[in-house]
Amino acid sequence: MSLAHLIDLPDLPENLRLRCRIGSGAAGSCFLATDITDQALALKIVSEKWEERELESIRALRKIPSHPALAQILGSGKLSDGRFYYTMELADNAGTETEYQADTLAYRMKNRVIPLPEILQIISAVASGAEHLHRHGVFHGDIKPENILFVNGSPKLCDFGTLSSGLSGTAGFYPENPVSGADRDCYALGMTLYCAWSGRDASSFPDPPDSYDPKEWRRVRKIYLQACNPAVRHRFSSASALIAALNEAAQPRRHVFTRKRLLITGTLFLLLILFSGVAVLFFRTKEEPLTPQKQQSFSPFFITHNPRDFVTEDNEEEYEARKQQELHEIWRRGSEEWIQKHPKAIKELAEYGVTITLTPDGQLEIHDPEYKENGGIYRTHSDWYFSISGKRYLEVKRWMRKNPGEIEKMKADGITFFPDPKDGLEYTDIRNGLQGVGSLSDLLAYWKDGPLFYLKKKQQP
Q1: Are residues 126 and 143 in contact, defined by beta-carbon separation less than 8 angstroms?
Q2: Are residues 260 and 236 in the same domain?
Q3: SS in 3 state form for 247-288?
Q4: Chain-wide mean pLDDT for the chain?
Q5: What is the C-alpha separation between 96 and 99, in angstroms, rounded?
Q6: pLDDT digits over 388-419, tens only?
Q7: Residue where a domain terminates, one of 272, 289, 314
Q8: Does some domain include residue 23?
Q9: Is 97 inside any structural domain?
């Protein structure tokens, strides 16, 4: 018996039978259905408001070859009331025989601690699916744990409704300054990696969980920190680069220790040869013995017998902690020096409500009420990356204070922007679905020329 009348649906095609509702949202409702051969599948009925976007995305997806990490679209059509629907592979059942529960990464994260090797394998697999999309000129646009399902145990990306949209996605899973769809997807993959490993949501990024294995943390943190770096130039350049990093992290650690031991052994052997040469030279000479001061200037190498200065498998954690402490001290010295060099910039920023403080780990923490990311807080520890020293950032703040009327006109034209300590400002053209990062002059030129600004800029010698 068809269940269509029980859930207020128009008649379905004769080859489909509804079994139960398995999800719903703004874009539509999803049902478990079976076809004429009793093959279980997922059927999504799209809301009228989202029909054009979903239809465009499905068309784009069906133009490219299939991929094992992309959920397969099985069919599509129109209901008797005109609504668009499509069918796709059904996720494995993580529930009971009588109650279906889709097996997704989000469900697994909620119900158990996923081992790091399994997480790396899952993210690497779906990253290969994203890379396949990018190679064919499209991007997913909404990668997150809820949109990674498992079919016969294999992870697959699903929910392609944002495939062709430039202004969509889930908060926390896309950067404030995406330069491309691929950049956006790589950021989302990095955030998904963080959430799956830490068990936390995106709002906690990049804090580790309360309890964790330091060795695992060192393996995984550099990947999600690079993928979600606020600076575009420091993020992964492609999904293939991200996959390479994931695969490297998945390698057994004994290989790392082997390389490390070989490096240490080779270095010690070289030092032994050089030290022997110095000793021979010393005993051959008839001059008076070298004083400690002369010996220090004579030897081109620092030779130590302190085992703390060598990295082994046994003292790796202690060594890493000590090096991290030394790094924080370097940051602190650089930050303190920056503060001493730029008193005028700091004073002027204070007039705009911007305060700068020194964090315990030696970074500069900027509190700007007009800066969106991280609740108005931005951190940095290097002057070349932090451009407020009388440059773009201050220029934007001054212009904003002097030209409130111009800002309102821009907003009326669909252009929004906010100051950014690392790049001066970031702006978004809502009407044309374009985003940019640059100087104040870039923003004003874009406001004047619209999308033609990029064409003119490209044509400049």
Answers
A1: yes
A2: no
A3: HHHHCCHHHHHHHHHHHHHHHHHHHHHHHHHHHHHHHHCCCC
A4: 79
A5: 5
A6: 555 677 888 888 888 888 888 888 888 877 77
A7: 314
A8: yes
A9: no
